[in-house]
Amino acid sequence: MRIPLSWLREFAQVPAGATAEDVMAELVKVGFEEEAVHRPTDTLQGPIVVGQVLSLVKEPQSNGKTINWCQVRVVPEGQEQTLTGEGIDPSGVQGIICGAHNFVEGDKVVVTLPGAVLPGDFHISARKTYGHLSAGMIASVRELGIGDDHDGILVLSRIGLDPEIGTDAMELLGLYDEAAEINVTPDRGYAFSIRGVAREYAHATGTSFSDPAAKVQAPAELTGGYGVKLNDDAPIYGKPGCDRFVARTVRGVDATLPTPAWMTSRLRLAGIRSISLPVDISNYVMLELGQPLHFYDQDKLSGDIVVRRAVAGEKLTTLDGKERSLDMEDLLITDDSGPIGVAGVMGGASTEVSEATSTVLIEAAHFEEVSIARSRRRHKLPSEASKRFERGVDWQVANVAAQRAVDLLIELAGGAADDAGTDVGTAPDAVTIALPASFAAERIGIDFTEEQIVTSLVDLGAIVDKADGGWTVSAPSWRNDLETKEDLSEEIARLVGYDQIPATLPVAPPGRGLTRVQQQRRRLIQAFADAGLTEVLAYPFVSKAANDTFGVAEEGAPRSAVKLANPISEEQGFLRTSILPGLIEVAKRNHSRGFRDLAVFEAGLVFLPAGEVGTASIPPLGVKPADEVLDALYDGVPDQPLHIAAVLTGHDSPAAANHTPRPWDWADALDIARLAGDVLGVEVVVSQGSHQAFHPGRAARLSLRSGEVVGYAGELHPKLLAAQDMPERSVALEINADVLFEAAADVIVARHISTFPVATQDVALVVAQEVPADDVLSALRDGAGELLEDVALFDVYAGKGIEDGKKSLAFSLRFRAADRTLTAEEASAARENAVALAAKRFGAVQR
User: Fold this and answer.
1) What is the CATH number of domain 759-846?
2) Fewest CB within a 10 Å sphere: which of 20, 145, 206, 686?
């Protein structure tokens, strides 16, 4: 919201010398965020004055262009020029070359004299051109930076101005004014108006506030006006789509009259382009009071206005010239001809006010917030009106805004208002909140006095009545966000001052700290980071195809997922059942930007629904739900285990002199999976596995000793990598961390490190091709006994010298005793025992 300071000063006590920065500094105190400062003088500097064209001589040029050699008086006749400098004529008459042709002798124009600076850092100076010394420029609105039109220079009489020659044009056009821009949060729609911001400025500074609505003399009752019917008897979103509609008629309007400079200046600073006098008046009132208006050419209406929902197949051409197919949930403004506007969003072209309009029908209505918001999103049609309606507009201000528009049309457009008018609808029930005396202090942590509480609420515009143990508070009509005692407590804290809230940190109870699971989670994430992987955060929203591929191991297996009711993107309309789709998207985005060597991981929740999700019973606000209600809510929440996953592509390190980087492969994925178990004190068993997202022959199943599967690791499927435009041989892993946490020991006991030397022996065993190497390794470990410190596979061979259907597995065995140096005979005996068990289980033959 942009706030022109001259406008704000009409209703709040802003010091004369205050800047936009000063105003924003005050508004920050009451919870607004600074956005920007809009100050024309930052890019526009004088001398810029009003001049009158004394003579105009057209001079055709050899290039086919005709220029005007003008003599322009910039000082009143009989007075001397007080400005000095190169190019300033002491006589007060400047010779100026101008290429525009929309002015004549006698017109008063804006003249930028030598020394002036225009937007774009364009410096004005005297220069010789077309055979003349041109000392200045006759300016257009675009050159002054106050509009986009470039139909020619700005002729002041055409915008209703007849100033004295030599007048400061910047002051005349309001260019010394400035605007402060603040960010308005969705719950504070009242601040999308000068009225609302002025009230907040008064709160922040402790000064008085003059309500612009109180200055308008609106009739207490309106009858006999244009016919209006509200036909929304079956509300879709809990409330009628329209619960108030005020209509006023103004006749004899001259829509061709120019908008006054003071109004266009304020609209421009507020970020709204001047269009025509009637449209500018409607926008001006909306910005001033926060009530959007719509003007109809009453002569184009046929029959009564009816507010209703759309019916199937209806269409409407809106003011932007686009034909729109209407949805049955759209709230419409209609007459006998059909739809003439999408309520609260945009009017229709068929009843648009034009220069030929003489009778204006003013609409000031109150619409239901959700209905307007959904129509705006559905038609991708943002507007200043919908921005306010979907955040909530003051029900009580509709007739005041209509009267303000009537007054301006009479004053500026020469109209005459009908005494009759229309005001139909039913006022909503006032929101009454019980506020216990001690609640705000307990909630905020400040011992508020009774005076602070009552004064803050009264300043808000609330009605405060004393009650047993506290107060009964009736929220003001413009604050539809105040519904509970918690809301009131926050307002009290805001107006008393956030700086009054003590900065205290909670003291943790002695003997407590992170929970067991919190410690395990931190240890696991830190281990992945220490291993050289980069933690990322991916979106939890994925496509159905991604869940089908990664959510279950077997293709076609049953899989359930949570479908979003209102997704950001229809293509990503489900909550993830696996983390890998998001990691792959992160990798793809990095690859597209030239980063090919990646090792990324994420620890996050996945969503695994089982049975019915959600509940039809939503408990009310402000009251703790009963245990059975909470149980029903929790039963409808899907299981959300913590998973940790990683994707590795490219090489393990950058290329460098005398260094050849190694490509990531499936073994790295297995090592990281084992690392996850090591840091938690859980043995992760690696075995041959299959998963539709992984390579058929290079995938491992990760499980516990109990047989419970905790995840998969290995090389991603070649077809998947090709479809995702990922590098070949990319590898990944995903583990259910919650299962590891449950299996982890409370205390991890470090293994004793023996000081005695190790005895190493190798063995090569020939087994059938289908026998997993990990199973053979497990047999060797079991057979070797307690002397075995470690066993590792270091070679797999199949070919010459090995029988068809067989393979050779070479293992390195490390033996060590805790209390002595092993003899060669003891190590060999342990090895033979290991080989014997492998032979018994798998028919292994030593090479």
Assistant:
1) 3.30.70.380
2) 206
Total residue count of the chain as it appears in this document: 847
Mean pLDDT of the region 104-129:
92
Cα-only R_g, the chain = 39
| Distance from C-alpha of 434 to C-alpha of 413, rounded to nearest angstrom | 49
Find tokens 């309500």 and name the residue. 211
What pTM was estimated for this model as a whole? 0.67
Please state, in angstroms and rounded to a whole number, the distance separating the CA atoms of residues 480 and 704. 56
Q: Where are the domains of the chain?
A: 2-39+178-210, 42-172, 228-425, 432-499, 516-606+641-743, 759-846
Query: Phi and psi dihedrals of 140, rounded to 5?
Result: -100, 170
Say whether pLDDT at 831 is over 90. Answer: yes
Mean pLDDT of 51-76: 92
Q: Which regions of 656-805 does DSSP assign to beta strands (E)? A: 685-688, 694-703, 709-716, 731-736, 759-768, 788-797
What DSSP line would sit under 203-264, residue for residue?
A: HHHT--B--GGGGS---S---B-S-EEE---S-SSSS-SEEEEEEEEEES--TTSPPPHHHH
Per-residue confidence (pLDDT) for residue 610, from 0 to 100: 81
The one-character DSSP state at 154 is: -
> Could you tell me which of 748, 672, 733, 656 has the C-alpha nearest to residue 699?
733
Tokens of 411: 């004053």
Which residues share a beta bridge with 659?
A: 656
Sign of CA dihedral 722, 725, 727, 730: negative
Confidence of residue 307 (pLDDT cuts 50, 70, 90): very high
Q: How confident is the model at residue 150 (pLDDT cuts 50, 70, 90)?
A: low
Record: fold of 2-39+178-210? Phenylalanyl-tRNA Synthetase; Chain B, domain 1 (3.30.56)
pLDDT, residue 149, reads: 67
Residues 710, 676: Cα–Cα separation, whole Å: 11
- Residue 592 exposure: Cα atoms within 13 Å on the Cβ side: 8
What architecture (CATH level 2) is domain 228-425? 3-Layer(bba) Sandwich (3.50)
The 10s digit of each residue's pLDDT in 661-680 is 899 999 999 999 999 999 99
Query: Is 406:219 a contact under the CB 8 Å cutoff?
Result: no
Q: What is the pLDDT of residue 301?
A: 94
Evaluate whether 278 touches 387 at the Cβ level (below 8 Å). Answer: no
pLDDT at 57 > cutoff 70: yes
- Amino acid identity of residue 465, one-letter, is D
Domain 516-606+641-743 in the same topology as domain 432-499: no
CATH of domain 432-499: 3.30.56.10
Task: Encode 6-46 in three state secondary structure.
Answer: HHHCCCECCCCCCCHHHHHHHHHCCCCEEEEEECHHHCCEC
Q: Please state the φ and ψ torsions of residue 77, each to the nearest 5 degrees.
A: -60, 135
What confidence score (pLDDT) does residue 103 get?
92
Taking the C-alpha atoms of residue 294 and residue 276, their distance in angstroms, rounded to an integer, is 14
CATH class of 42-172: mainly beta
Q: Which long-range contacts (CB under 8 A, 24 or more apart) does 712-718 make?
A: 712/553, 713/666, 713/669, 713/670, 713/672, 713/673, 713/686, 714/666, 714/669, 714/670, 714/689, 715/665, 715/666, 715/669, 717/692, 717/693
CA dist., res. 674 & res. 681, Å (int): 10
516-606+641-743 folds as BirA Bifunctional Protein; domain 2 (3.30.930)
User: Which of 106-110, 193-197, 441-445, 600-604 has the least mean pLDDT?
Assistant: 441-445
Determine contact, residues 611/560, Cβ cutoff 8 Å: no
Beta bridge partners of 68: 58, 98
Cβ-count burial 531-558 (b if 16+ within 10 Å, e if not): bebeebebebbbbeebbbbbbbbeeeee
d(CA 294, CA 591): 51
Q: Does residue 778 register a pLDDT over 90?
A: no
One-letter amino acid of 493: A
